[in-house]
Amino acid sequence: MRRREIAFRALPDVPDVAPGDNPGAIVVAALRSGGITLQSGDILVVAQKIVSKSEGRFVDLAGIVPSQRASAIAVETGKDPRFVEQVLRESSAVVRVAPNVLITRHRLGFVMANAGIDRSNIGATGGDDWVLLLPADPDASARAIGSYCATHLGVTPGVIISDSFGRPWRQGVVNVAIGAAGLPVLVDLRGHPDRDGRALQMTQVAVADAVAAGAGLVLGEAADSVPIVHVRGLDWWGPAGDGQTLIRPPEEDLFR
Amino acid sequence: MRRREIAFRALPDVPDVAPGDNPGAIVVAALRSGGITLQSGDILVVAQKIVSKSEGRFVDLAGIVPSQRASAIAVETGKDPRFVEQVLRESSAVVRVAPNVLITRHRLGFVMANAGIDRSNIGATGGDDWVLLLPADPDASARAIGSYCATHLGVTPGVIISDSFGRPWRQGVVNVAIGAAGLPVLVDLRGHPDRDGRALQMTQVAVADAVAAGAGLVLGEAADSVPIVHVRGLDWWGPAGDGQTLIRPPEEDLFR
Fold first, then answer.
1. Are strands B158-165 and B43-47 parallel, antiparallel or unpaired?
2. In this complex, is the C-beta atom of A158 within 8 Å of any C-beta atom belonging to chain B?
3. So what's the pLDDT on residue A30?
4. Angle at CA A153, nearest 5°, toward A147 and A154?
């Protein structure tokens, strides 16, 4: 068997990101600062927050008037009614409401807490009332970063835009891919033989989510968090996909 | 910031495992074969299958008489009624039944497809009727592997027993930790400051699941799968836990 090793390295010295900054340029600068020469097959995992910030996806809750529905959910969850209103505006369906829990289907399809809206690590843009939405189109953001690298470094890496998600039956969050470009995100093993030459029951592997999860180990969440991770050594076949590929269609939702 | 890098390396030359083999001895031999000197802080991710095989967790479906309930679920799912019966015997609750879908709560607490019972990659123990159950106590299996390494190599690594799980709202499987010992499996960040000095909303990070997911990228599922992955560079604080720590208590199940 050939050697199989995959390494995740946090890139140092990534500056704070402001609206209008080009995430591609930030990635290229971070690679240079980290002394990394991009190679074919490399992947960059970029925290959702820096993409959202660069796109100026800030909302000032002070300007939000909660609907009646948002106010009712705010009572049930114990959350700020203006925050709930913003979550509803980002969502196509409400999945679960409970004390301190608000899970919705984001308009992009992700079932997640608070429609992915953040109140921490969003920078000193405003007061406590500012929140940060998901990028408008994370797959497009990933493609744009890949293209920028192609133009300026001569190599198109795989790119994953990553955010941390809770899971219904397991404790704690893990990072997943909310956007992706230039790598196989879902690899189909159906029909491949197993070690005994038997066809695999196992069907599809969520490769981009696994890469995002591994990157989460060096991304961090606290004061020493870094928003970009370089990944080398992924060895999977399959066509490139995007983050949407990883969303289970609502009609296959295991709870319908 | 200090350098943060985590590397996952598949160990070569792991032989087929038979009932009665010592997984600790298999791990130590694989480390030697891979030329790896274990260091403090290293983690070994071990595929559930080799632990189950070493424990002889095989069942011959030919000896199983399906109950009426199993037969009814077999019709709904299109699965072998004897297989369904064995799944039910391993489970404390049925979560979801649909064509080709049988999700239960395993008696150890994991909500997963088919109670984790495998029909692929289980070796040439018998005919097509043999299946392989999860290890009897995966946390104890992880501890035993760690102890064996301590005795024979002088270092106690973190150990994760890993299996691949589907997710209700996302396509594809990722690896998670069904057993663990000697590492922080769930790291609590509540109250830690974020980059802006603000307390994190984010609460707990499923570190062991993220390590298992990353390891899954080199473990593989098909004919060239390797059952042991060496992980170096995990840099998280927090007390050691076990795989059970990662199970969301049923009363916190997001679907109750």
1. parallel
2. no
3. 94
4. 75
Gap between the Cα atoms of A4 and B166, Å rounded: 24
Q: Smallest Cα–Cα separation from B6: which of B136, B158, B133?
A: B158
A46-96 confidence digits (pLDDT tens): 999 999 999 999 999 999 999 999 999 999 999 999 999 999 999 999 999
CB proximity under 8 Å: B 95-124 to A? 96, 98, 101, 103, 110-111, 118-124
Assign A15 a pLDDT band (cuts: 50, 70, 90). Answer: confident
Reported as type and span, the H/E element at residue B70 is: helix B68-77
Provide the ipTM.
Answer: 0.93
A183 forms bridges with which residues in the sheet? A241
B149-167 burial code (b ≥16 CB/10 A, e <16)? beebbeebbbbbbbbbbbb
Token pair in block for residue A122: 């969003």
Query: What integer best gives the mean pLDDT of chain A?
Result: 89
Reference A104, options A89, A126, A118; nearest CA is A89
Rg (chain B; Cα; Å): 19
If we measure between CA atoms, which residue out of A174, A199, A172 comes closest to residue A188?
A199
- pLDDT tens digits for range B30-88: 999 999 999 999 999 999 999 999 999 999 999 999 999 999 999 999 999 999 999 99
Angle (deg, nearest 10), helices B81-89 and B68-77: 120
Q: Where are the beta strands (DSSP E) in chain A?
A: 5-10, 43-47, 58-60, 91-98, 101-106, 111-113, 130-132, 158-165, 174-181, 187-188, 204-205, 228-232
Residue with tokens 């400051």: B193
Q: From A5, which residue of chain B is nearest by alpha-carbon distance?
A: B9
* Secondary-structure percent of chain A, ordered helix, strand, coil, rounded to 5: 30, 25, 45
Name the residue among A120, A186, A254 with its Cβ closest to that of B198.
Answer: A120
Q: In the 8-state DSSP scheme, what is residue B169?
A: S
Cβ-based contacts of B254 with chain A (< 8 Å): 96, 98, 101, 103, 166, 168-169
